[in-house]
Design a protein that fits this description.
4 domains, Rhopdopsin 7-helix transmembrane proteins, Beta-Lactamase, about 600 residues, alpha+beta, 5-stranded antiparallel β-sheet, 5-stranded mixed β-sheet, binds adenosine-5'-diphosphate
């Protein structure tokens, strides 16, 4: 076998192998149009190599002309495929220029087939026999075809098109691809000129176009191979990152899911399978998923999803219950991100979900505890206040009784002293109103309900609280000193709850002064401004003060040092003060006794 046969067959073999590989790629992924275009050009390059081998061995001018004619078809196919490959692969290049080159190459085929013998020669007179690489080759002698200039033009345009596309692609950040493809065309043209020059000097018997087109095919093949290599790397990285994500999701008990809105298909990871309980790896739609949701939450979940999509919102967050395979109820919180298409139509929602059953249980338990605490506290306050209220009521009721007896006596006189009786009746009325006010205050204190904010004058608040315990103070021989400057602003607060705070603090002070060793039983309640926005109410007493080591525990529920105490008073005070946006603190006075300060916000315009 001669060198000519070996070299040309190898060129064809390389082209065919590359074509087959890329054809396979395209068959597996129909979106890989660049690979399909490459296959076309590589097959054409292989055919061209074989045609060139045949033309060099042609025996007659007619045979030479006929083979050359078909070589133009192969060359046109390669050029057209290269143009569209470049356009597609670089994502750049002028389309009109691509169409112009395509049109020109197809146009050349008309005179190629209509005129004799082909687009290169107008006439082939004879074939010269030249010896080359151990073989005798045919070299045509004849007149050139003027249509040939169209082929040259198309090659120049191809050169311009590729360089222009490469420059544009560089700006888009595809520098390497631009360089390889942008350089291969000029190289092919330089190669073509060199081979023609060598032929003109009688060194080569022909232009050997196979190698010119082979350069183009190899440039494209190089690019596609680099792509394949990158795809492999990306696949590896993707596998790693998926594994990392799976581990992280599993560790955090995080469900990952995706709902393909268009196909109505839900995918979710293993963690989510556990949550849903019955997915078992099979693909399901939204309706199937909703079947697993608690009937009470089903409509709400579906409405939330549909509304989010209808309003074209991006983020979705929803809490709902699911019924697991074992019929257990589980609370789920799901966050999702909705992706929309060009016409703002929802395409898919991707998201994560977390099982929050434990948290929900804790919340319910905490709420139950709070309710219990409030009930206990209310009962406790009731117990403490009932004796104070009994004292309070004793006084007006006694006065009413005494007045009624006196009135009776005046009526028995002859004539009855009606003026006295009238005065007595007015007194009875006043006492009755006082008794009613005591009962009303007690009821208010025990009533439940939300905070009802109003602007309250500090003096009024303090006096009302003090009035509730006035009888108790008298009985225990305790002096209550109240000091409230006249120009203080009003407080923003709930009257009943703040009264409860002051009553609790006063009751604690009462207990304290009773146990104190000093003979003096003094409680002071004073108010003052604390900056622009706050007002301070301070309750001080002459009792033994707090245990310095336990100051931090004072406001904790159930901290008590009293044999019959339950340790909820200060804790409740703090809850109420916090709800007002205020602060409560306790300290010992420098010499003796306790000091509790409550800071409360000033009412707007107060
Ligand atoms: P209780 O009065 O049921 O013990 P509190 O929460 O009202 O519950 O008070 C907790 C503890 O704080 C009391 O047991 C007491 O030791 C201490 N304490 C509260 N007020 C004073 C005070 N004015 N003087 C001294 N100790 C006090």
């Amino acid at each position: 076998m001669s060198w000519i046969t070996v070299i040309w067959s190898m060129a064809a073999g390389v082209s065919l192998t590359l074509a087959a590989v890329n054809l396979l790629v395209w068959l597996r992924d129909r979106d890989a149009v660049a690979n399909a275009l490459f296959s076309v050009s590589a097959v054409a390059a292989a055919v061209l190599a074989m045609q060139e081998l045949a033309v060099m061995r042609a025996q007659t001018p007619a045979e030479f002309g006929a083979i050359l004619r078909w070589m133009h078809v192969s060359a046109a196919m390669i050029v057209i495929a290269v143009v569209w490959f470049t356009h597609l692969y670089l994502g750049a290049g002028r389309r009109w220029l691509a169409w112009l080159i395509t049109g020109l190459r197809l146009l050349v085929l008309i005179p190629n087939f209509v005129l004799y013998p082909n687009a290169t020669f107008a006439e082939i007179h004879a074939l010269n026999r030249v010896s080359f690489l151990g073989e005798t080759l045919s070299v045509p002698m004849g007149e050139m075809n003027p249509w040939r200039s169209l082929i040259h033009l198309s090659m120049v345009l191809l050169c311009i098109f590729v360089v222009d596309a490469a420059l544009a692609a560089r700006k888009l950040g595809r520098g390497r691809q631009a360089l390889v493809l942008g350089a291969s065309i000029p190289i092919a043209i330089v190669l073509s000129a060199t081979l023609s020059g060598l032929m003109a000097h009688g060194i080569l018997p022909g232009p050997f176009v196979t190698f010119v087109f082979l350069v183009l095919v190899l440039a494209m093949a190089f690019e596609l191979s680099v792509d394949l290599l990158r795809a492999r790397q990306v696949t590896g990285e993707l596998r790693d990152s998926r594994e990392r994500m799976r581990l992280a999701a599993q560790a955090a008990d995080l469900g990952l899911w995706e709902w393909d809105v268009v196909r109505d298909e839900i995918w979710s990871n293993d963690v989510d399978h556990t949550i849903a309980g019955v997915f078992g790896g099979k693909r399901i739609g939204l309706a199937d998923y909703l079947e697993l949701v608690h009937p009470d939450d089903r409509d709400r979940l579906e409405t939330t999803i549909r509304r989010t999509m209808a309003q074209a919102r991006e983020l979705l967050q929803v809490e709902y219950r699911m019924i697991g395979a074992d019929s257990t109820e589980r609370w789920i919180v799901a966050w999702g991100k909705v992706e929309y298409g060009e016409r703002r139509q929802p395409l898919r929602i991707r998201g994560v979900s977390v099982d929050i059953t434990a948290r929900k249980q804790l919340e319910t338990e905490a709420q139950q505890h709070r309710n219990q605490l409030t009930r206990v506290q209310r009962g406790f306050v009731l117990g403490q206040l009932s004796s104070a209220v009994a004292h309070e009521l004793n006084q007006p009721l006694g006065a009413i009784l005494r007045n009624a007896e006196a009135g009776e006596a005046f009526l028995r006189q002859d004539p009855p002293d009606l003026g006295e009786v009238r005065e007595i009746l007015a007194d009875i009325q006043k006492d009755d109103q006082r008794a009613a006010a005591v009962i009303q205050r007690m009821r208010s204190l025990l009533q439940q309900g939300e905070l009802r904010f109003e602007a309250i004058a500090p003096l009024e608040l303090i006096q009302q609280a003090a009035a509730l315990l006035a009888a108790e103070m008298r009985t225990q021989h305790v002096t209550l000193g109240i000091a409230v400057p006249a120009d203080l602003p009003k407080i923003r607060g709930d009257r009943i709850h703040l009264q409860q705070v002051l009553v609790n603090l006063l009751l604690n002070s009462l207990d304290a002064v009773k146990t104190g060793n000093s003979g003096q039983r003094q409680i002071d309640l004073h108010a003052a401004r604390a900056g622009e926005a706050m007002l301070s109410l301070v309750v001080e007493d002459s009792g033994p003060g707090f245990d310095p080591a336990r100051l931090v525990d004072l406001f904790e529920p159930f901290y008590t040092t009293k044999p019959d105490g339950i340790g909820l008073g200060l804790s409740l005070c703090r809850t109420i003060v916090d709800a007002h946006g205020g602060r409560i603190s306790a300290a010992n006075r420098p010499r003796e006794g306790a000091r509790v300060e409550v800071l409360l916000p000033v009412a707007a315009g107060g």
